[in-house]
């Protein structure tokens, strides 16, 4: 039974008792959590708050923005820009980096986020979320900050997590010593630790992939899914179940809760595009959480966290979840 302690106390213990995080990282994470709480309230209001529907604009990736994409982005920026912990931020919804204005104190951290993941699920009242990743500015103490400073491998992350706005609002976090989950207690207005040392089973009978793209997949992915679909009578000798929420946060949350494998692979429709998901603010934070819970995350060829990004909005093929299944598909890519 996990002790019912608040996120604030959990982070203070990580700082003072375990000596794992410095105080400015602790404070930064508290601000991110506060912003997520505020996004959660906006999501909950739904049609009553006038937050549903399209914003009639496009982001840098040419995707139509929803009102909530923009609201969540603004909430995260406004909450974080004046705290003194950050040098700059980057977001799915902004083309370039957002440098903390010099009227505010400057910090040493870089915050990246997908402010609203699963945008296509907003109006249909299905779980959505916010994904975040924290890096350290490479040359601490040096003046200024550039986009180049953000281009670090996922293995350099100092904190990562997501907040899922579903039946419950749950914040899931790692600072490199396992994964913890905090459920928002709306009466108290605080996140309470409800799960510690989250572990993903090595084996699973549940896969998550958008099956409508099947005819476009590369042979290793097609082989893996064909074998799962063949069930008991096939080479795997067991029946598989399938889930696809179309919100990465929700699919990853299920995998952290009960195991499974998630794939958003490269496909041949746009051969030059490595995948759909974004490396720096979707795959890296989720990949680290999965690894911290005992799972594996690859792009089919290499560990996601080892990929050296060349661009802020770089895309990547993603295979993550239960160790033995991810290793199996990754192995199929090598043959
Ligand atoms: O609609 P598709 O192609 O199945 O894509 C679903 C995927 O797209 C995403 O929604 C992309 O995230 P955004 O909503 O932040 O653009 C992932 O969360 C999800 O896994
Ligand atoms: Mg997303
Ligand atoms: Mg998004």
UniProtKB/TrEMBL annotation:
<dbReference type="InterPro" id="IPR033391">
    <property type="entry name" value="FBPase_N"/>
</dbReference>
<dbReference type="GO" id="GO:0006000">
    <property type="term" value="P:fructose metabolic process"/>
</dbReference>
<dbReference type="InterPro" id="IPR044015">
    <property type="entry name" value="FBPase_C_dom"/>
</dbReference>
<dbReference type="InterPro" id="IPR028343">
    <property type="entry name" value="FBPtase"/>
</dbReference>
<comment type="similarity">
    <text>Belongs to the FBPase class 1 family.</text>
</comment>
<feature type="binding site">
    <location>
        <begin position="117"/>
        <end position="120"/>
    </location>
    <ligand>
        <name>substrate</name>
    </ligand>
</feature>
<keyword id="KW-0378">Hydrolase</keyword>
<keyword id="KW-0460">Magnesium</keyword>
<comment type="subunit">
    <text>Homotetramer.</text>
</comment>
<feature type="binding site">
    <location>
        <position position="210"/>
    </location>
    <ligand>
        <name>substrate</name>
    </ligand>
</feature>
<dbReference type="GO" id="GO:0005829">
    <property type="term" value="C:cytosol"/>
</dbReference>
<feature type="binding site">
    <location>
        <position position="114"/>
    </location>
    <ligand>
        <name>Mg(2+) 2</name>
    </ligand>
</feature>
<keyword id="KW-0479">Metal-binding</keyword>
<dbReference type="GO" id="GO:0042132">
    <property type="term" value="F:fructose 1,6-bisphosphate 1-phosphatase activity"/>
</dbReference>
<protein>
    <recommendedName>
        <fullName>Fructose-1,6-bisphosphatase class 1</fullName>
        <ecNumber>3.1.3.11</ecNumber>
    </recommendedName>
</protein>
<feature type="domain" description="Fructose-1-6-bisphosphatase class I N-terminal">
    <location>
        <begin position="6"/>
        <end position="196"/>
    </location>
</feature>
<dbReference type="GO" id="GO:0006002">
    <property type="term" value="P:fructose 6-phosphate metabolic process"/>
</dbReference>
<keyword id="KW-0963">Cytoplasm</keyword>
<dbReference type="InterPro" id="IPR000146">
    <property type="entry name" value="FBPase_class-1"/>
</dbReference>
<comment type="pathway">
    <text>Carbohydrate biosynthesis.</text>
</comment>
<dbReference type="Pfam" id="PF18913">
    <property type="entry name" value="FBPase_C"/>
</dbReference>
<feature type="binding site">
    <location>
        <position position="276"/>
    </location>
    <ligand>
        <name>substrate</name>
    </ligand>
</feature>
<dbReference type="GO" id="GO:0006094">
    <property type="term" value="P:gluconeogenesis"/>
</dbReference>
<feature type="binding site">
    <location>
        <position position="282"/>
    </location>
    <ligand>
        <name>Mg(2+) 2</name>
    </ligand>
</feature>
<feature type="binding site">
    <location>
        <position position="114"/>
    </location>
    <ligand>
        <name>Mg(2+) 1</name>
    </ligand>
</feature>
<feature type="binding site">
    <location>
        <position position="117"/>
    </location>
    <ligand>
        <name>Mg(2+) 2</name>
    </ligand>
</feature>
<dbReference type="Pfam" id="PF00316">
    <property type="entry name" value="FBPase"/>
</dbReference>
<dbReference type="GO" id="GO:0030388">
    <property type="term" value="P:fructose 1,6-bisphosphate metabolic process"/>
</dbReference>
<dbReference type="GO" id="GO:0005986">
    <property type="term" value="P:sucrose biosynthetic process"/>
</dbReference>
<dbReference type="GO" id="GO:0000287">
    <property type="term" value="F:magnesium ion binding"/>
</dbReference>
<keyword id="KW-0119">Carbohydrate metabolism</keyword>
<feature type="binding site">
    <location>
        <position position="116"/>
    </location>
    <ligand>
        <name>Mg(2+) 1</name>
    </ligand>
</feature>
<feature type="domain" description="Fructose-1-6-bisphosphatase class 1 C-terminal">
    <location>
        <begin position="200"/>
        <end position="333"/>
    </location>
</feature>
<feature type="binding site">
    <location>
        <position position="92"/>
    </location>
    <ligand>
        <name>Mg(2+) 1</name>
    </ligand>
</feature>
